[in-house]
Amino acid sequence: MRADPSRIIRRRVNIDFAAADAGAWSRRNTGFEDALNALSFAFPTGETYFVNSVRYYVKRIKDPSLKEQAERFIYQEAMHSKEHGRANRELQQFHAYGRHMERLIAPMFGFSRRFMPRATQLATTCALEHFTAMLADVLLRDQQRFIADSDPSFVALWLWHAVEETEHKAVCFDVYQHVCGKGVVSYLQRVIVMGVVSLIFLGVLSVIFMRIKWSKPVGTADAAEPTGKPTLAVLLHDVPLRLYFDYYRVSFHPWQHDNAHLIDQWKAYFGDFGVNAGAR
Fold first, then answer.
1. Is 276 within a domain?
2. For residues 252 and 177, what is the distance between their CA atoms, to the nearest angstrom?
3. Residues of the domain holding 208
4. What span, in angstroms and rounded, lies between the C-alpha atoms of 170 and 256?
5. Looking at the predicted structure, is the pLDDT value of residue 208 above 90?
6. For the residues 1-12, what does the mean pLDDT come to?
7. What is the pLDDT of residues 46-97, one digit of tens each?
8. Residue 9 lies in a domain
9. Are 171 and 122 in contact (CB under 8 A)?
C-alpha cells in the first residue's frame, strides 16, 4: 500500500499534437482507436468533476500526508484535463462524434454537481477512478505494443495519463474514508454508488460506441483485425472481473492490487517525462 505523497509526481506536460496523425494515430485497429478517442472526449469534463469533488474536502483533511496527496491528485487531474482538451481539438478535425460526446457527457456531470450531495459526488469520483485505474492497468501491461503501433504523441498522452492514474489511484478513496468514515453507512454509499455508476458508465459507453459505428462508412474494419468498430470488449477485454468486484469488499483498498512495477517500466522508457525543477 503506497501512501507516500512523493510517489504522486507533479509533471508539467505539453505534448505536440499538431505533428501527430490525429485521424489515424493507431495501427492496431479502428475500434481500439475510436474507443480511446471516445474516452478522451469525455475526460476534460470528467476530470474537472473529479477535481471539484476532492477539492471541496481538502480543508477538512487532518492528515498532512493525505492532504498533500489530495493536492497532487488535483494537479495531475487538472493537467489531464488540459492535455486531453488539446488532443481533442486535433481529433475533432477528423471525428465529428467528438462534439456529440461532449454534449452528452457535460449535462450528466452537471446534474450530479447540482443535485447530488457532496459525499455522493466524492463516492462517484471514487467509482470512476476505479474504472480509470483498471483501464490504466490494461494500457501499461501492454505498453510495449502500444509504443510500437501508435503515433508517438498519443503514446505519450495515454501512457503518461495511465501512469498518473496508477500513481494516484488510492487518493480519492482514502479521502472518502477520511471524511466519510469506514462505517456501514459509508460502505453502503460507496458500493451502491459504484453499482449505479457502473450501469450508467457502461450504458453511456454503449450508446456512444453505437453512435460512432453509425458515423463510420461500411467496410472500414481493419483486415488483419476485423473488430474495426469500438465495443466494450475492445476497451475492457483485458480487465479481470475480480479486479472490478474487489471494489465491493468491505476491506477493499486500491493498492491491494500493487502494480507499481508498471510505472517503473514506463519510467525506464520515458525517463523524467514532464518533470523539471520544482515539479515534484
1. no
2. 11
3. 27-270
4. 10
5. no
6. 79
7. 999 999 999 999 999 999 999 999 999 999 999 999 999 999 999 999 888 7
8. no
9. no
Long-range CB contact pairs, 271-278, < 8 A, 24+? 273/11, 273/13, 273/156, 273/160, 274/9, 274/11, 274/12, 274/13, 274/160, 275/9, 275/11, 275/12, 276/12
Is 31 part of a structural domain of the chain? yes
Return d(Cα 112, Cα 122) in angstroms, integer. 11
Query: How many structural domains comprise the chain?
Result: 1
256 band by pLDDT with thresholds 50, 70 and 90? very high
Rounded Cα gap, residues 59 and 279, in angstroms: 23
Residue with cell 474494419: 221
**Half-sphere exposure for 129 (CA within 13 Å, toward CB):** 34
Contact 26, 154 (CB under 8 A): yes
Backbone angles phi, psi at 26, to 5 degrees: -120, 140
- Per-residue cell: 172: 480519492
CA dihedral sign of residues 249, 251, 257, 260: positive
Residues 248 and 126 sit within 8 Å (Cβ to Cβ): no
Query: How far, rounded to the nearest angstrom, does the alpha carbon of residue 240 sit from its chain's CA centroid?
Result: 17
Residue 134 lies in a domain: yes
Task: Output the CA–CA distances (angstroms, integers) from residue 170 to 60, 167, 192, 226, in the order listed.
Answer: 18, 8, 19, 37
Whole-angstrom Cα distance, residue 210 to residue 16? 30
Q: Which amino acid appears at position 165 of this protein?
A: E
Residue 1 burial class via C-beta count within 10 angstroms: exposed 0-12, middle 13-18, buried 19 and up: exposed
